[in-house]
Design goal:
Blueprint (H helix, E strand, L loop, with lengths): L8 H13 L8 H35 L6 H20 L10 H19 L14 H4 L8
Amino acid sequence: MRTSYQADVVAWANEQAALIRMGKFDQLDLEHIAEEIEDVGKSEQRELESRMAVLLAHLLKWQYQPDRRGKSWQSTFKLQRKRVLRAITKTPSLKASLSDQDWLDDAWADAAVQAAKETGIEMDIFPESCPWNMDDVLKEGWLPG
């Protein structure tokens, strides 16, 4: 054993888990274990942000392209809302992200880029920040405009 963290993180993680199970706590790579634990939380936040960006992008498309509204967009609304709400239910601490302006600004920026790319609408046409309340955004059936 003793694969370095930098050489192969998966092998390293398996070795660290085995050391914990064997009770060999003095042999653990605590600094990297702490980093990995923090990264788990960051990964969950990134996943939530990605889902929110997809939802917001489709809401933008719905508002700015009324002639292209269709069932596939409505399906996307339903799916992304369900996944965001499931993530918040399974990991309640993620709910704080929905009221974190920096987090929301990042999700909005990704959404606007995605919507602009998919519609051909110039970025400066969209609001600089999310104009919608998160409770509305996540409410089943709610649509802008």
